[in-house]
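Sequence, please.
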């Protein structure tokens, strides 16, 4: 339920309904259900269906395909946060004998391990998982198609390996670990590896005629960590909140933020498309809006989860047809409609409760050579440094507690910033990874590498 303050305006709700109505009609989907999340709550739910008098609600299950991969990635990140593995570890260290063990865990998470996209024939999505009982059956005789770590190549077998890694380190089936460590803590009560009523049936819609064919629903067996799950818009809305804010019962905010950061090499086409892949999450740039989430498909079903983190808006769209509506576009549109019609209202500005005078004196204008920068104190106790105008290197910095700061993003990520003081305690300059920032361009008397011309600034005479 939502309070009046959290509800969307009638015009916004109508625009959302219109968007999914167009998607269902033009995509010829038997049914389509969607939800929008804002401020940590579901604020809208809509459905369209070809069945008169019936509309699926937020509790009807649909198969969500590769959104399952994001759940598997959460389990792997939990192992990392507990110190049971490092993302830079080769798979061989924890799961020996696969034949592809030189790929690191991070590379498998980001689909850059060089593995094939699919399991060998027969078509794994439409045949019983019992045909592939072992990892060797999933990987086949030629599991690697590309050099490890060199390119992003989406791989379903890669996530099968990650599921096997979870089972090895937890000593329990992937399904049980997922239930215990993610679904139960997040109260995702309608998310499961097998459907339970009410759930949608999967259909294929004929491309040239308005007729349908029932699709088989197979248990994927070993491939389950790549695409087995069923879920609802209600549960995926709660999962979207988790992927935005984190939950200490599962993963903290810093780790889910890490999942949302690009982690795979990109090719020229990806740069043009504004597409990237993180640790179990797809990333898409649309104009100035950055979207994260995941799409999914299995015969009979399409699914999409899209999050506009900066806008604090997320969308879930599910349908029960093999092809038809382009749900990634629908999800992005639902986020855009809300973000543009009802922009996020910022929190009130409040002054800092306290400030260190030795830090406050560093605030203001600095020069790297002749480039003008501004250093500002941030509300979280850190500082930020960026150009006074135009584009250039900029970053937030985390305080280390010893008078230095560590860069959090961009060119200065991981780099150290410190104030260098003279014997009398006054500030001489800032040192940022050996770069010297002074109060004036090439300030006289400052410790500028290479020295300062004693004749000073002059014109042409």
């Amino acid at each position: 339920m939502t309070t009046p303050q959290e509800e969307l305006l009638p015009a916004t709700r109508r625009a959302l309904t219109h968007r999914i109505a167009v998607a269902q009609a033009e995509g010829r989907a038997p049914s389509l259900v969607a939800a929008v999340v804002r401020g940590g709550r579901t604020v809208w739910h809509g459905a369209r269906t070809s069945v008169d008098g019936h509309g699926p609600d937020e509790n009807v299950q649909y198969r969500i395909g590769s959104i399952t991969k994001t759940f598997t990635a959460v389990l792997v990140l939990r192992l990392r946060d507990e110190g049971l593995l490092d993302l830079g570890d080769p798979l061989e260290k924890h799961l020996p004998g696969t034949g592809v063990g030189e790929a690191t865990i991070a590379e498998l998470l980001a689909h850059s391990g060089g593995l094939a996209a699919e399991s060998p024939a027969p078509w794994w999505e439409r045949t019983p998982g019992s045909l592939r009982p072992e990892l060797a059956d999933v990987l086949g005789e030629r599991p690697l198609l590309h050099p490890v770590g060199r390119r992003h190549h989406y791989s379903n077998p890669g996530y099968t390996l990650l599921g096997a890694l979870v089972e090895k380190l937890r000593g329990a089936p992937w399904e049980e670990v997922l239930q215990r460590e993610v679904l139960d803590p997040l109260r995702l009560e309608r998310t499961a590896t097998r459907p339970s009523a009410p759930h949608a049936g999967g259909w294929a819609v004929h491309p040239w005629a308005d007729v349908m064919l029932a699709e088989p629903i197979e248990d994927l067996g070993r491939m389950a960590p790549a695409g087995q799950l069923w879920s609802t818009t209600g549960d995926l809305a709660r999962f979207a909140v988790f992927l935005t804010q984190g939950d200490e019962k599962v993963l903290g905010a810093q780790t889910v933020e890490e999942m949302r950061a690009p982690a795979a090499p990109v090719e020229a086409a990806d740069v043009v498309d504004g597409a990237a892949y993180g640790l179990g999450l797809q990333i898409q740039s649309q104009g100035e809006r950055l979207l994260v989430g995941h799409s999914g498909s299995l015969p009979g079903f399409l699914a999409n989860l899209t999050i506009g983190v900066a806008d604090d808006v997320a969308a879930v769209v599910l349908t029960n047809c093999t092809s038809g509506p382009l749900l990634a576009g629908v999800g992005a549109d639902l986020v855009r409609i809300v973000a543009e019609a009802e922009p996020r209202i910022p929190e009130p500005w409040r002054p800092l409760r306290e400030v260190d005078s030795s830090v406050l004196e560093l605030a203001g204008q600095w020069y790297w050579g002749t480039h003008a920068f501004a250093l500002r104190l941030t509300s979280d106790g850190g500082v930020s440094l960026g150009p006074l105008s135009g584009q250039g290197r900029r970053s937030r910095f985390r305080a280390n507690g010893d008078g230095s700061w560590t860069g959090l993003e961009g060119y200065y990520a991981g780099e150290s910033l410190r104030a260098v003081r003279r014997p009398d305690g006054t500030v001489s300059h800032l040192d940022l990874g050996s770069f010297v920032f002074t109060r004036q361009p090439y300030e006289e008397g400052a410790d500028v590498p290479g020295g300062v011309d004693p004749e000073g600034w002059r014109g042409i005479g």
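The CA atoms of residues 191 and 231 lie 4 Å apart.
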